Amino acid sequence: MIVTGGGGFLGRVVVGQLKDKGCKAIVVPRSTKFDLRKTSAIRKLYAQARPDLVIHLAAVVGGIGANRDNPGKFFYDNLMMGVELIEQARQMGVPKFVAIGTICAYPKFCPVPFKEDTIWDGYPEETNAPYGLAKKMLLVQSQAYRQQYGFNSIFLLPVNLYGPGDNFSLTSSHVIPALIRKCVEAKKRGDGHITVWGTGRATREFLYVDDAARGIILAAEKYNSSEPVNLGAGFEISIKKLVYLIAQLTKFKGDIIWDASKPDGQPRRCLDTTRARKAFGFEAKVSFEEGLKKTITWYASNAHVIV
Known about the structure:
- It is globular, with a radius of gyration of 19 Å.
- The model has no long low-confidence stretch (mean pLDDT 94).
- The protein has helices at 9-20, 39-49, 64-69, 71-91, 129-149, 175-189, 209-222, 239-250, 274-280, 288-302; strands at 2-4, 54-56, 97-100, 153-158, 160-162, 193-197, 203-204, 206-208, 229-231, 237-238, 255-259.
- α1 (9-20) packs across α7, α6 crosses α8 (239-250) and α6 crosses α10.
- β3 (97-100), α5 (129-149) and β4 form a beta-alpha-beta unit.
- It is 44% helix and 13% strand.
- The strands form four sheets. It has a five-stranded parallel sheet, with helices on both faces.
- The protein has ten helices and eleven strands.
């Protein structure tokens, strides 16, 4: 099998869990050798690996700031990778393809909890719309290819992920690793405050990376439909509560300053996870506070090597 992005944050956990299940012939293509935006590289990869399954995790991603700075790159790279990987898999007779979408594909003002059937009911939140739309096109492709060619591909929509090994860069990370780093570094320096983007009113849902990997593998094993499926933990927390919880867990006792000139992003995010539970028995197992503690512990042990 092939796991694109298998060396990344989520990919390493997926590959590890696959190996624990006894999978041995796992190919993880590296970008230095295979440019997955190019047809020739993908055909070469498929010809060499001859996969019976492709799990497509590779993506160009980042937080609100990174999305605002790179809308064209995020659109093009994610669209071309996904479209060509699916098309060449169809042409070369790959039995099954697992495409990983994004919660950013949902409309900006979507009824909460987000149900898969509402994904086409509006335009995504503007700051990450190019990324979200690029990923959503893979759902269109999956459904069209199943209808016309009988190609077996599935499309999963994981909520915001977090956990050990996440991207902790202050310029490109998502909210949890960015906040952990800010709090830990401020505490170490003795700073009296940290500054956080937005108003704190937006809400988010988070899924621990080990749970996400388990859900992806369950779907790869048991799900064979092109109807999209949410992967989430089924809860939401305001950014304000999240900040104070991370400050508490990192023992940062300074003030929180809110920079309301910066965007909040989508107002609310919380998934309806009924379909995943019914279709392939997936439910999140790791509690949010437990996952945060594990992530903070990992960062504290690895902060010296993180740029």
